[in-house]
TrEMBL record:
PROSITE patterns given in the database record: ABC_TM1
A GO CC annotation given for this chain: plasma membrane
One Pfam match: BPD_transp_1
UniProt family annotation: Belongs to the binding-protein-dependent transport system permease family.
Xref: Gene3D superfamilies: MetI-like
Transmembrane intervals: 12-33, 81-103, 110-132, 144-164, 185-210, 244-265
Phylogenetic lineage: Bacteria, Bacillati, Bacillota, Bacilli, Bacillales
Domain ABC transmembrane type-1 as annotated: residue spans: 75-265
GO BP: transmembrane transport
Organism field: Alicyclobacillus mengziensis
Main location group: membrane
Transmembrane helix recorded as keyword: yes
UniProt subcellular location: Cell membrane
Alphabetical keyword list: Cell membrane, Membrane, Transmembrane, Transmembrane helix, Transport
Name of this chain's protein: Carbohydrate ABC transporter permease
Length: 279
């Protein structure tokens, strides 16, 4: 029979730290949603009002009509870019990580070390040559100028390679003895077993694409092509006296898809992240 463990003083402080961390983490998100229902006077009042305001309809009207930005088109653009980037980037990172971890070929360690070294290069350094390259291919102001540079992520390759390092090679050998080809082994055995870490990498990649501001801001110059971060940034720059409630409403709408994806895949995400601590 399992005995009930006593609640000790260290447990109390541990729970207190977790509670404080939860409040600190969730407060900005809560305030963003609350501020989207308020006007500037309530947001910048002497005393912070944490209750729902009465300006939600006004803020929504300003966002849809007066802002000059089609927020839902921007969300559609971001979804299209993020979905394509995530699916292809996760697939390529999985293939590359699988090759680096499972197969032994000449120069594999050197190639992987070059991958790791490229992690040390700030992305801002590559933006000018990357812009010139996209310009030569006539991809400026298109979604492909954002998608193509994001298809191979060094972090994704590194994460998948480290996960495959502890993959049970005996399963692969047994499948080869049974006559399965390398492609069928990868699809039928490897991918199902790696589903948690694939979900984690997918969420992280989707989040990076969804929140990417600087590079889309450089390569996009048409309002119909704006992603959601670029559209939200223009709300600040195109108004002499910004309606911050409207801006917070736009940010709230942009946050909802990410929250929905995380809630749907939270179990796989946690399992994938935690698997790295036990390997």
């Amino acid at each position: 029979m399992r005995t009930k463990r006593r609640f000790t003083v260290p447990d109390f402080f541990l729970h207190l730290v977790v509670l404080v961390g939860f409040v600190v983490s969730i407060y900005p998100i809560y305030w963003m949603f609350v501020a989207s229902t308020q006007d500037n006077e309530q947001i910048f009042g002497k005393s912070t009002y944490l209750g729902l305001g009465r300006s939600l309809a006004t803020n929504f009207h300003d966002l849809m009509v007066k802002s000059g930005i089609n927020i839902f088109r921007a969300i559609g653009n971001s979804l299209e870019i993020a979905i394509i980037s995530t699916v292809v980037a996760v697939l390529l990172a999985t293939l590359a990580g699988y090759a680096f971890a499972i197969y032994r070929f000449r120069g594999s360690k050197t190639m992987f070390n070059i991958f790791l070294i490229s992690l040390m290069i700030p992305p801002q350094v590559t933006m000018i040559p990357l812009f010139i390259l996209m310009s030569k291919f006539h991809l400026i102001n298109t979604r492909w100028a954002i998608i193509l540079p994001a298809l191979v992520t060094v972090f994704g390759v590194f994460l998948m390679r480290q996960s495959f390092m502890t993959f049970p090679v005996e399963l692969l050998d047994a499948a080869r003895i049974d006559g399965l080809g390398e492609g069928r082994i990868f699809l039928r055995i490897v991918l199902p077993l790696m589903r948690p870490i694939l979900s984690s990498l997918g969420i992280l990649t989707f989040l990076a694409s969804w929140t990417n501001l600087l590079w889309p801001l450089i390569v996009l110059d048409s309002a119909t092509k704006y992603t959601i971060p670029v559209a939200l940034s223009t709300l600040m720059s195109t108004q002499t006296s910004p309606n911050y409630g409207m801006i917070m409403l736009g940010a709230s709408i942009a946050t909802i898809p990410m929250l929905a994806i995380f809630l749907l895949l939270r179990k796989q995400f946690v399992a994938g992240i935690m698997s790295g601590f036990y390997r």
